[in-house]
Amino acid sequence: QVQLVESGGGLVLPGGSLTLSCAASGFTSGRYAMSWYRQAPGKERELVARITAALQITTGGHPNYADSVKGRFTISRDNAKNTVYLQMNSLKPDDTAVYYCARGWSYPDYWGQGTQVTVSS
Known about the structure:
Radius of gyration: 13 Å
Largest sheet: 7 strands, mixed
Distance between the termini: 40 Å
Number of helices: 0
Structural class: mainly beta
Number of strands: 11
Strand content: over 45%
Shape: globular
């Protein structure tokens, strides 16, 4: 049974940092592209970052980012732990959203339940 469980969300001050984790089970996450999406209140879900399958690239996968988070967010994976991470720095109030982990590159087939990130003073 495929499961994705996000953790690490919370309340943070503007300019602060958070690291989200996505623990995968029921499949080998390194064999798949993995993505992070977010959905803010009243807005559509949007892609934040994604990373190719580790086996396609020699060093863990090639990342891709939304323009709004480039230079601030970093996606990475630890295949030994079957976990994908999203390091978020220089957070802004506009980053407030529920963040979802998903399996896949363009059309994810499995989603986690989401973790809330709130950036506020």
